[in-house]
Amino acid sequence: MIESLRRFPLRRFEDDRGWFSELMRASELPKPVRQANLARSRKGVIRALHYHERGQDDLFVCLQGMVRVVVLDRETGEVFTEDIGDDNPVAIYVPGLCAHGYEALTDCLFCYFVTEEYDAADPDEHGVPWNDPRVAGLWSTRSPTLSARDAAS
Taking the CA of residue 100 as centre, how many other CA atoms within 13 Å lie in the half-sphere pointing to its CB? Predict the structure, then answer.
């Protein structure tokens, strides 16, 4: 597995009301979380691949639906992928120097906690094309819905 990448199985406590799950525990993370972000995506959306030169790490959690997380170690070419969400409640901690993103396998609600606050005046966002040969075969779709930024990467 990619160095510094971590998997955190999430326990769900279910009863007649539904379920409860702890999403993260700060004492288990290598760096403190500074910001939380939430995204809703429709099936077939790919939000990827991005990395951070100044060391922002991300903790990915799919709150509803299913997503495919894809991580690329840009130095070694090693890749990691896992489908997470309703059928596999896992949080994935991604070191920011690795290119990372996800594909919505279903309509989904996706949360990511980050270790640095976003600075629009000096963004630390860099891209690798979603169809880079090192990861192109990992996505389930060949014709994703992309943002303008992701399509231009």
Answer: 23
Query: Do the Cβ atoms of 49 and 132 come closer than 8 Å?
Result: yes
CA angle 106, 107, 108 (to 5 degrees): 100
Task: Convert the pLDDT of each residue in 80-122 to its tens digit.
Answer: 999 999 999 999 999 989 999 999 999 999 999 999 999 999 9
pLDDT bucket at 48, cuts 50 / 70 / 90: confident
Rg for the chain, CA atoms, rounded: 15
**Could you give the strand order of the β-sheet that contains 58-64, starting from the edge strand earlier in sequence?**
6-9, 90-94, 58-64, 108-114, 35-41
Indicate yes or no: pTM above 0.90.
yes
Task: State both tokens at 30.
Answer: 């290598």
Q: For residues 92 and 5, give the distance between their C-alpha atoms in angstroms, rounded to a whole number.
A: 7
77 vs 31: CA distance, rounded Å: 24
Distance (Å, whole) CA 71 – CA 62: 15
